[in-house]
């Protein structure tokens, strides 16, 4: 069930925060093989739940998230809790502070269950390239996929997408009500789509990056992963706003944060960017794209074909800018002040090199080296400045379309549904990222809000998502459109094999019925 | 779904697709049926929407010759980056990354101002230039593997990295 329903049950006393927290912790243990969590903060979570329980009993809850369990991607700093970025480089790193977005949730009484798995330093699109091993997509264990694959389904599991795959798996497997991801080129929306979630990449600057370990400073945003647009709006309302600790934050737009109740879909104009039919788009995703466009038209919404001419160069531009910023950002990891340090003591440089060789995986090392190449004096104009120019052309394409009267763009989120782990691992990380981020990274280039909404299960029984991209600062309107889609699409709830015989395995599946009706 | 066809279409699209005249969305493929995942018209749930192009719309891009990265540049990059290529495969990966990036040169960007932030048109908040946090030296020193009193300890400096002779 969605967190707003649990929130109501908590307030009405039908469920207690400690009971809820214990159930989530037990469920994390049962689903450990998904590898969604790197660290589970059991003791602290129970303590937070008890505090929330006191507040609720006294009738003084802090807000809609008081007592609601959540998870955080392990590239956000959390005070006194191990923070690894799924890299050996940060082995043993326990930050002395919490990221602003994490602190805001804790201040609201939300209960932190643990830190979730990812691709090392969030560089990847599968959650397969981290020091703690790959994350499994919970939908590979659901009835629909098992039936499709038959006996092979036992060994043949599918990826979550990435890089926020652990957060996606945590929310999709029902062990957490919502989770924080990060989104630089699609790292929240890609796993969100492949795991059947509503996953929001907010407008750049609306949420603080303070305490989010940077990948590409000019594109990184904290992402919100939930099971409904309503929940995403609630979490967004709490997290947004200017932060004195992040000079790139902007004040929240005025007005309410909840979804508008008087929202009239007929007032919206939907644009279909023609360039988003990219080579490799699966027929099933194309089908959903057409179906939802039709749904909008049937509801009296104006649907227009629009053009974003530089789309196909966006992934190339992203590749160059990402490597350059990575090369610069990763320079901070030298073994001296924190994290892994090599015992080599020949010279400072030798110690740095040995530390970084051991600490980074080959994906990170290769991006650093490519970035250094693009930034060499003789290449700087040819690659880095050129990419920055192309970035402006890409951002201008969006500006033109939005100023022509379009409110939201409807596009695919990914080329296809989730690949099996075996298929995914056939190509190297760079090639895969170039494929997987095609539809998602343009929104990061231009700093626009974008959300993926689950539509249906594919013929393989796996989720297919579609993306909505909005104007800057129109995150709430975007979520209102997402909510409209959600209501009409009726995406199925995950159902696991054997759920019926062993009612115990998902204790709140049964509660769900009673509470949704409450 | 994520079949080899899909992958092949991605990696070879730029090589094998040519537009036919000026007809939009019409393509000629030199690897018939292999390089492009077509919209499957046998799909029983076939839905077509007039605003959504039925086939891929990307324009062909001329791929440049792969750049050879000479040994001395490899060496220089390793010194700058303080990470190593490890093997020839690592160098080849860089060469592929450069070739991929070279596609940018088919975009005309003459006179376009480079964009380094999406907030370029906003006036950003600047805090007062005064100290309002600190007193955390101890907490920070605790994170290091090697400190003496209030100092981080590094091995001897000003010694350049030895050349990687193995390569």
From TrEMBL, chain A:
One cellular component term from this protein's GO annotations in UniProt: glutamyl-tRNA(Gln) amidotransferase complex
Domain Amidase: 19-479
E.C. code: 6.3.5.7
Keyword terms: ATP-binding, Ligase, Mitochondrion, Nucleotide-binding, Protein biosynthesis
SUPFAM superfamilies from the UniProt entry: Amidase signature (AS) enzymes
Functional summary from the UniProt entry: Allows the formation of correctly charged Gln-tRNA(Gln) through the transamidation of misacylated Glu-tRNA(Gln) in the mitochondria. The reaction takes place in the presence of glutamine and ATP through an activated gamma-phospho-Glu-tRNA(Gln).
Protein's name according to its UniProt entry: Glutamyl-tRNA(Gln) amidotransferase subunit A, mitochondrial
Automatic annotation (TrEMBL), chain B:
Enzyme class: ligase
Major localisation: mitochondrion
Subcellular location: Mitochondrion
GO CC annotation: glutamyl-tRNA(Gln) amidotransferase complex; mitochondrion
Record field: catalytic activity: L-glutamyl-tRNA(Gln) + L-glutamine + ATP + H2O = L-glutaminyl-tRNA(Gln) + L-glutamate + ADP + phosphate + H(+)
Record keywords, A-Z: ATP-binding, Ligase, Mitochondrion, Nucleotide-binding, Protein biosynthesis
Function: Allows the formation of correctly charged Gln-tRNA(Gln) through the transamidation of misacylated Glu-tRNA(Gln) in the mitochondria. The reaction takes place in the presence of glutamine and ATP through an activated gamma-phospho-Glu-tRNA(Gln).
Protein's recorded name: Glutamyl-tRNA(Gln) amidotransferase subunit C, mitochondrial
């Amino acid at each position: 069930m969605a967190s707003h329903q649990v929130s109501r049950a908590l307030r009405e006393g039908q469920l207690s925060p400690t009971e809820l927290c214990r159930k989530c912790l037990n469920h994390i243990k049962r689903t450990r093989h998904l590898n969604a969590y790197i660290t589970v903060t059991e003791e602290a979570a129970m303590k937070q739940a008890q505090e929330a329980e006191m507040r609720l009993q006294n009738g003084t809850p802090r807000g809609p998230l008081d007592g609601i369990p959540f998870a955080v991607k392990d590239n956000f700093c959390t005070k006194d809790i191990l923070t690894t970025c799924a890299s050996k480089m940060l082995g043993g790193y326990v930050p002395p502070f919490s990221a602003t977005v994490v602190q805001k949730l804790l201040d609201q009484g939300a209960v932190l269950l643990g830190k979730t798995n990812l691709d090392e330093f969030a560089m990847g699109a599968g959650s397969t390239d981290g020091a703690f091993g790959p994350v499994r997509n919970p939908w590979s264990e659901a009835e629909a996929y098992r039936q499709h694959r038959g006996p092979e389904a036992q060994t043949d599991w599918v990826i979550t997408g990435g890089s926020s795959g652990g957060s996606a798996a945590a929310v999709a497997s029902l062990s957490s009500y919502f989770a924080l991801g990060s989104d630089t080129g699609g790292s929240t929306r890609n796993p969100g789509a492949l795991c059947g979630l509503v996953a929001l990449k907010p407008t750049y600057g609306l949420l603080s990056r303070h305490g989010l370990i940077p990948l590409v400073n000019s594109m990184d945003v904290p992402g919100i992963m939930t099971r409904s647009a309503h929940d995403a709006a609630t979490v967004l309302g709490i997290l947004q706003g200017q932060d004195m600790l992040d000079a790139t934050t902007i004040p929240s737009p005025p007005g309410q944060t909840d979804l508008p109740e008087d929202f009239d879909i007929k007032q919206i104009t939907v644009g279909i960017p023609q360039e988003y039919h990219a080579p490799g788009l699966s027929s099933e995703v194309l089908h959903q794209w057409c179906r939802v466009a039709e749904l909008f038209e049937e509801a009296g919404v104006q649907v227009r074909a629009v053009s974003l001419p530089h789309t196909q160069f966006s992934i190339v531009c992203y590749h160059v800018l990402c490597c350059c910023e990575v090369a610069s950002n990763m320079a901070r990891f030298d073994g001296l002040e924190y994290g892994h340090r090599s015992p080599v003591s020949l010279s400072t440089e030798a110690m740095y090199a040995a530390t970084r060789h051991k600490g980074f995986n080959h994906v990170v090392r290769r991006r650093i080296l490519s970035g250094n190449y693009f930034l060499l004096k003789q290449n700087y104009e040819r690659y880095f400045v050129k990419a920055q120019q192309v970035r402006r052309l890409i951002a201008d394409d969006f500006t033109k379309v939005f100023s022509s009267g379009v409110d939201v763009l409807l596009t695919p989120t990914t080329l296809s549904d989730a690949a099996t782990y075996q298929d995914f691992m056939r190509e190297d990380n760079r090639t895969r990222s170039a494929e997987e981020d095609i539809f998602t990274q343009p929104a990061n280039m231009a700093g626009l809000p974008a959300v993926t909404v689950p539509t249906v299960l594919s013929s393989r029984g796996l989720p297919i998502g579609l993306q909505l991209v909005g104007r800057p600062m129109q995150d709430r309107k975007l979520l209102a459109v997402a909510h409209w889609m959600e209501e009409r699409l009726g995406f199925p709830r995950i159902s696991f094999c054997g759920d019926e015989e062993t009612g115990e395995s998902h204790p709140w599946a049964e509660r769900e019925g009673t509470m949704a009706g409450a | 779904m994520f079949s080899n066809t899909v992958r092949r279409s991605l990696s070879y699209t730029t090589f094998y697709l040519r537009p036919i005249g000026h007809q939009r969305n019409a393509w000629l493929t030199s690897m018939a049926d292999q390089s492009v995942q077509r919209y499957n018209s046998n799909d029983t749930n076939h839905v077509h929407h007039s605003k959504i192009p039925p086939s891929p719309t990307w324009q062909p891009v001329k791929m440049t010759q792969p750049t050879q990265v000479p040994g001395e540049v490899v060496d220089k990059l390793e010194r700058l980056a303080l990470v190593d290529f490890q093997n020839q495969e690592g160098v080849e990966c860089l060469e592929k990354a450069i070739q991929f990036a070279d596609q940018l040169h088919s975009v005309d960007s003459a006179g376009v101002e480079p964009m380094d932030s999406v907030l370029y048109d906003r006036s950003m908040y600047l805090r007062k230039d005064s100290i309002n946090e600190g007193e955390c030296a101890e907490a920070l020193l605790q994170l290091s593997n090697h400190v003496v009193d209030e100092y981080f300890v590094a091995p001897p400096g000003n010694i350049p990295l030895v050349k990687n002779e193995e390569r």
